[in-house]
Specification:
This protein has 268 residues and is of the alpha/beta class. The chain contains eleven helices and eight strands. The chain has an eight-stranded parallel barrel with strand order 1-2-3-4-5-6-7-8, surrounded by seven helices. Strand 4, helix 6 and strand 5 form a beta-alpha-beta unit. The chain starts with a helix and ends in a 19-residue tail after the last helix.
């Protein structure tokens, strides 16, 4: 199984780290077979898999259910699971309880926490729960920040640098930076000793993450500027229509898809 030590070595040797989201057994199995370095069971599953309006609706039960399936599909991968909205930021005792529960129940390698929760990161680190921090655009907070470029002024950029250093000091094993200027992401990456993974943060980070459904054009209605599509699953509708028509016409199943052995009319 891939470890955080191996990922740290990749950063030190300037080998880029690949990360992709996966939300179930087959997608995680594909990711591991493709040699993807890290798998994120992101709360983006709320929109791309469950049809929610935002990540805010995602529950602990949702994350646990999908992360367990992803782990079964990728037993040897470094798997990170998102702590959903409302599970942290309540009080320290509750925050710790939820982070520990998600870590234990899913058998993930780490939990990912959005925003500045240094006390929680410290607490998790002290008891052995690895934490990946998520800074910049944090989707769970878009009701306040909106979907837009973050840290676009010098003052905001300087603050993000300090925030990144603070979560590293608190014990975070990795950071995800989303939707920030590429030069800022590069500066942060150079100043930290832990891996920095970017999404919409340019090529200067230690690695990149994309959403499985965006990358493969699988049911995605809005494609962000930072997404590159490497496949096209959108033609699934055409395949389903063809199946529907063949069932209606009787063309399916053909003899090629039918068992040949005859049993009716045989005597015992």
């Amino acid at each position: 199984m891939k470890t955080i030590k191996q990922l740290l070595t990749m950063k030190e040797q300037k080998e880029k780290i690949s990360m992709i989201t996966a939300y179930d057994y087959p997608s995680a199995k594909q990711a591991e077979a493709a040699g993807i370095d890290t798998i994120l069971v992101g709360d983006s599953l709320g929109m791309v898999v469950l049809g929610y309006d935002s990540t805010v609706e995602v529950t602990m039960e949702d994350m646990t259910h999908h992360a367990k399936a992803a782990r079964r599909g990728a037993p040897d991968s470094y798997v990170i699971v998102d702590v959903p909205f409302g599970a942290v930021g309540i009080d320290h005792t509750t925050d710790m309880k939820n982070a520990i529960q998600l870590y234990k129940d899913t058998k993930a390698n780490a939990v990912k926490i959005e925003g500045m929760h240094t006390t929680l990161i410290q607490g998790c680190t002290q008891i052995g729960v690895p934490v990946v921090s998520h800074l910049g655009l944090t989707p769970q907070s878009v009701g306040i920040t909106g979907y837009k470029l973050q840290a676009s002024s010098k003052r905001e950029a300087e603050q993000l640098i300090e925030d990144a250093k603070a979560v590293e000091q608190a014990g975070a094993v990795m950071i995800v930076l989303e939707a920030i200027p590429s030069d800022l992401a590069e500066v942060i990456t150079e100043q930290l000793t832990i891996p920095v993974i970017g999404i919409g943060a340019g090529k200067g980070t230690d690695g990149q993450v994309l959403v499985y459904h965006d990358l493969l054009n699988y049911g995605s209605e809005h494609i962000a500027k930072f997404v590159k599509q490497y496949g096209d699953f959108s033609n699934g509708i055409d395949a389903l229509k063809a199946y529907h028509e063949e069932v209606k016409s009787g063309a399916f199943p053909s003899e090629a898809h039918t068992y040949k052995k005859k049993v009716m009319g045989e005597t015992e």
